[in-house]
Each structure stands twice: as C-alpha cells, then as structure tokens.
UniProtKB/TrEMBL annotation:
This is Flavin-dependent monooxygenase. It comes from Kitasatospora cathayae. NADPH binds at residue 44. It is an enzyme of class 1 (oxidoreductase). Keywords: Cytoplasm, FAD, Flavoprotein, Monooxygenase, NADP, Nucleotide-binding, Oxidoreductase. Its cofactor is FAD. The lineage of its organism: Bacteria, Bacillati, Actinomycetota, Actinomycetes, Kitasatosporales.
C-alpha cells in the first residue's frame, strides 16, 4: 500500500480475530491500535477449548508467524469425539485424532494469550469502551468512547463480537435467538477428583443426544473438563419454570428433572460439577448477512457473521483477521483493501452460516433420531 503516511487503523475488540489482524499488520511494520472495553487480559474467563482447522485457524496462525508456538501449546490428542447412547451410556461411535495432527485443541485463553504476547507493548488499550461509530464524508471513520472523547481513523475494524457497537455503521441486523440454550458448568482435576467422568469423556469431547436435549463434555488443559447442557427451549425457560438462575441448587434440580430418563453415569455431569451453572442462550445473525460497502469501516468474526458455536466461529474470525491484514498491506489503498477483503469474506461467511445452522440442528435434534 503506497501512501504518504501509514493509514490510521483501529480494531475494536481484543478477541481472536482482532488480535490476529493486529499481529499480521505489525509483522509488516504497520501501526494499529486495538480498543478493548475489558480492564485487562485476565479480567474474565475466556471460555473452553477450540479445535484449530488447517485451512482456517491454522492458516491464519501461519500467516501470523505463530504456528510453531501454537503447536507447542496445542493438544492433538484432544481432537477426539465420543458419542454415547443417552439411555445406557454405551459407546455408539468414536472419532480419533486425524493422522498428521488434524484439528488440535487449545484453550481459548491460551490462544488469546499467545496472540497478545506477540503484539508490540501498548497495542491494546484496555478499558476503552466504544459507544458509537460514525463514517465521515472524507472516507474516514470516527470512534466515540465512553469517556466522551473521540478519535478519527482511516479504517475502523469491528471485531467486537455478537453485540458489536461497530456493526450499526454498516448494517441494521441484530442477533436473534436460535431456540437453543447452553447451560455451562465445569469440573477440576478430573483425573484425580472425577476419574469416572474422565474415562467417560476420554481425551477430547463426549456427547449424548436426546430429543431437544444434549450433553457435551470437553477436555480442557490442566485436568479441567467443561460441560454444556444444551436445550431446545424458550430464551426465558428458567422464568417459566420459576427458577432463579442465582439459585444453583434449584437450577441443578430442574436440569436433572429434564434428564431423568438418561443413564445415571451421564447424570454425573449435572450432579457433581465443581462450578456453578452459567446460562448461555445462543444467538445468530441473519444468514446471509451482507452490507453495502462503506468507506472507512468493516467487520470481522462474530460482528460480521455470528453463528452457532459448532467449531467454525473462532477459526473464521482468525482467517478474517489475517485476510484483512494481508489486503491492507498488499492493496494500493485502504478502500481497495477493504473491498478485496469483503469480496472474499462475505461469500465465505454465507457458506459457513448455512453449515453451522445444520450443525446446530444435528447437535441438538428437535426429535429423537
């Protein structure tokens, strides 16, 4: 990109996609600032384990020059799925790790830490809440922050997730409830404290499916297992049941009642968790979700194409970030770079959204299979 000065680039959101974009830009000597509303990198838990796909997440890490560091942290043995019969817990199917590494697992927090550590100190401005984004007539874009200050940039990248503050500058779309809710919990030191569960889950992930109900358990690092109780239910299912989500025992009792015809060994996931239950209703953006190009602003990751969490989201966000950064360092102008990026990303996201919707229907079937 030939210009009298480096373009001023702002990335809103220090998630995996935004950090990948920042890393690739810095590799090419470009300046970039990441604005993040959280107070620090460790201000909240970062979620479960992710499988990095060769043609998306791993490709992005390769572009970012971080693939070797990723493999040093990843767990290739975690790329295993065990499917159990819900009524007997008998093993119905097992898919082991693919030859050559396949899709190795890594904790989201470890992956985010890897990306953060790769950036120039001070790249991320913590405790920076963006309240609005305004494209300007000269092709630049203005960020307004929660403290009342404003800054102008040649490009603002919305990498700020499902409830993006950047998206309204491009699209009126808002996420809609899928009809599926995850209730998350967890187990610590599983090989010693929960050995039966550890054997049931294996090295990777385990699932058991019934009509409108699924249990998923997933190995994380350091002996932790994260479990998800997936339900086809109204978003306010707990209110209809008279359940206060803050009353953990009431939640536990209600969930057990929903799975009373399941095998007792699977009830362990509901009875004996070391952590409380976290309510996570699943939302998606309309598919297809597209927009007319607007100079000075674009989106990546969940801000652009929020999908069900069936293994695509983090991988696509990172590939988005790498592709956008690559365009910004190879095209002749910021606007041409964004157009080139959107011409690749938008069709790709439409295909992925269709597949992920089908994946959610398979994960939590409405009727017994």
């Amino acid at each position: 990109m030939n210009s009298a000065r480096d373009p001023r680039i702002a990335i809103v959101g220090a998630g995996l996609g935004g950090l990948t974009c920042a890393r690739v830009l810095q590799q090419h000597g470009r300046s970039v600032t990441v604005f993040e509303r959280e107070a620090s990198a460790d201000s909240r838990p970062q979620g479960g384990s992710l499988d990095m796909h060769p043609d998306t997440g791993q490709a992005a890490l390769g572009t970012a020059g971080l693939l070797d560091r990723f493999h040093a942290l990843a767990r290739p043995e975690g790329d295993e799925w065990r499917v159990l019969d819900f009524s007997t817990a008998a093993l119905l199917a097992r898919q082991g790790p693919a030859a050559g590494g396949g899709r190795p697992e890594i904790d989201r927090g470890q992956l985010r830490g890897l990306l953060l550590d790769s950036l120039t100190e001070g790249t991320v401005r913590w405790e920076s809440t963006v309240t609005s984004v305004t494209p300007l007539a000269d092709g630049t874009c203005r960020l307004l922050f929660g403290d009342g200050t404003a800054e102008d940039f040649d490009l603002v990248v919305g990498a700020d997730g499902a409830w993006s503050r950047v998206r309204p500058a491009l699209s009126p779309a808002v996420p809609d409830y899928t009809g599926v809710t995850f209730v998350e919990t967890g187990f610590d030191h599983c090989d010693t404290r929960h050995p039966d569960l550890a054997r049931l889950v294996g090295n990777g992930s385990m699932l058991a499916k019934g009509a409108g109900r699924t249990l998923v358990a997933q190995r994380n690092s350091n002996g932790h297992i994260r479990a998800y109780i997936a339900l086809r239910a109204p978003k306010d299912w707990h209110e209809a049941a008279g359940i206060d989500l803050g009353d953990q025992q009431a939640v536990r009792t209600h969930l057990l009642s929903l799975f009373d015809d399941w095998d007792e060994s699977l009830h362990y996931l509901l009875r004996n968790s070391d952590h409380g239950f976290i309510h996570r209703p699943l939302f998606v953006l309309p598919a297809p979700h597209t927009w007319e190009h607007v100079p000075g602003v674009t989106l990546l990751g969940d801000a652009a194409h929020l999908m069900p969490p069936v293994g695509l989201g983090a991988n696509l966000a990172m590939l988005d970030g790498a592709d956008l950064a690559h365009a910004l360092v190879t095209e002749s102008s910021v606007d041409e770079a964004v157009r080139a990026y959107e011409s690749i990303m938008l069709p790709r996201s439409i295909r992925a959204a269709t597949g992920s919707a089908q994946g959610l229907d398979n994960l939590v079937p409405a009727t017994a299979s």
